[in-house]
Amino acid sequence: MQPGQxxxxxxxxxxxxxxxxxxxxxxxxxxxEVTGQAGNGLxxxxxxxxxxxxxxxxxxxxxDPDDVETLQDLVAGALQDAVRAAQNLQQEKMGPLASGLDMxxxxxxxxxxxxx
Length: 116
Fold this sequence. Notes:
Strand content: 15-25%
Strand order of the largest sheet: 1-2-3
CATH topology of one domain: Ybab, Chain: A
Structural class: alpha+beta
Distance between the termini: 30 Å
CATH architecture of one domain: 2-Layer Sandwich
Number of strands: 3
CATH superfamily of one domain: Nucleoid-associated protein YbaB-like domain
Oligomer: single chain
CATH class of one domain: Alpha Beta
């Protein structure tokens, strides 16, 4: 191996470790659920980390046949809150892995590595 050349065995070990971490994060996200709420919990929406709806809970106090718009706004707000929570969870689980794609400063997968 020439000086300044990357150690291929080390690179392969890092890649294998990152692949295992990625698979673990994906498995955790596959089963994770998050809940968003609006109106101080009067409406709650639960979704998976992949944004698949699981449940909607509506407190009977907020059901007013003469004011459907408020209920609609609360459901939309709870859904937005759930989406934000799912995105935060995805970033928490996957973000460190994405930043680790630099592979020890080799520039693999980092910004500006594609020349054109």
